[in-house]
Design goal:
The protein is mainly alpha-helical. It has one domain (11-102). It has helices at 11-28, 31-51, 56-75, 77-80, 82-102. α1 (11-28) runs antiparallel to α5 (82-102), α2 runs antiparallel to α3 and α3 (56-75) runs antiparallel to α5.
């Protein structure tokens, strides 16, 4: 059984997992369950990126960015509010993922990496 499909974009997963993870933590009152959402999402993305032969350092950079943005959402929650901060970091993560791992050439359809 194949758990990844190289054709499926990962940018919605990286972005939405931050939103869903926060929502799960809020709804259940158990922050660790929200963390499980984040870990599962990043594991799936990592396996997908490996199957696409995205270079290891680039995958590591994406994981680090994900963790930094997760932490940043906590820092900017006071001035922005919790949901706006989560939405902002999710949008940044989704855009970065698209640019680094999901973008395709308009004519050839081949993956373009920066």
């Amino acid at each position: 059984m194949q758990i990844t499909d190289p054709g499926i974009p990962t940018w919605p997963v990286t972005g939405l997992s931050l939103v869903v993870g926060f929502a799960v933590a809020e709804l259940t009152g158990v922050r660790a369950i929200g963390g499980v959402v984040l870990v599962v999402a990043m594991l799936w993305c990592g396996v997908t990126w490996l199957s696409r032969q995205v270079p290891g350092p680039r995958i590591a950079a994406m994981v680090v960015l994900y963790l930094v943005l997760f932490a940043l959402s906590h820092v900017i929650a006071d001035p922005l509010g919790t949901w706006p901060s989560v939405a902002l970091v999710a949008a940044v993560m989704a855009a970065a993922t698209y640019a680094v791992a999901d973008r395709t050439h308009p004519r050839t359809g081949e993956r373009v990496t920066v």
